[in-house]
Amino acid sequence: MRHLFRISVVLAAGLGLVACADKGDETVERAFQDVNVVDESDLNDVMLTVADPNEAVDYFKRSLQQNPNRLDLQRGLALSLVRAKRNPEGVAAWTKLVGMTGSTPDDKVELADAQIRNGDWAAAEKTLDKVPPTHETFKRYRLEAMVADANKEWTKSDSFYETAVGLTTKPAGVMNNWGYSKLTRGDYSGAERLFGQAIRQDPSLFTAKNNLVLARGAQRNYSLPVVPMDQIERAELLHTMALTAIKQGDIKTGEGLLREAIDTHPQHFEEAARSLRALESS
Fold first, then answer.
1. What are the residue ranges spanned by the domains of the chain?
2. CATH class name, domain 24-123
3. With helix as H, strand as E and coil as C, how does the chain read?
4. Among 104, 141, 151, 186, whose Cα sits 20 to 30 Å from the Cα of 255?
């Protein structure tokens, strides 16, 4: 009887060791799965930032073949297609994601962004109308402002731009867009003010500097604004000012500005030289 008892104890211990071993294997396997998830997440982030966007598209397409219901992979594909300027495909990818269970209001905003890039303003407006009013983000209101601009709904546009500016710590870009909106309406002084604010927020934003020159030139103010600029930027801004003057019929002023632009540029300024030759020949 004692012999049988010893055999039972040994068997129980052996089974216990096997069970422990199995649990240990499961633990190790789960640990490796966790590591793989972390590694994959890091790789996804890399693909969305530094990788060539077309390579990222291929990566996310391959990943989706194995995991077709993964929202993060579908989102990565859609973002990569937009980064690669493959806008029709980007719209299709975002549309698919928006229809998947678990998609977010941000996904609808990104769909609207892709639709705008694809030139489908009406579809973007419909998409934004489906975003809950409680979803108040910078990108949502920036896109709302752009759609309002396209519809020439200036009061709504101003309201959306103002809201967007208040929702970001880097408002220079949206201030520049708002200023350009004012410029297209003929509100040149309002545009000049907004371009100046954009440059104060980001002194490196050359687009705002160029737009500021356009706004001043539209008011027949042909002096360069006092903003940070290097020698090449100064030459390019003088060229923009010259073309603005010529367009308004101030030919002599434009000719003088072209010559100043050519003299200012540290290298040969072919674009300004070509403009001057065309002016002289006419």
1. 24-123
2. mainly alpha
3. CHHHHHHHHHHHHHHHHHHHHHHHHHHHHHHHHHHHHHHHHHHHHHHHHCCCHHHHHHHHHHHHHHCCCCHHHHHHHHHHHHHCCCHHHHHHHHHHHHCCCCCCHHHHHHHHHHHHHCCCHHHHHHHHHCCCCCCCCHHHHHHHHHHHHHCCCHHHHHHHHHHHHCCCCCCHHHHHHHHHHHHHHCCHHHHHHHHHHHHHHCCCCHHHHHHHHHHHHHCCCCCCCCCCCCHHHHHHHHHHHHHHHHHCCCHHHHHHHHHHHHHHCCCCCHHHHHHHHHHHHC
4. 186
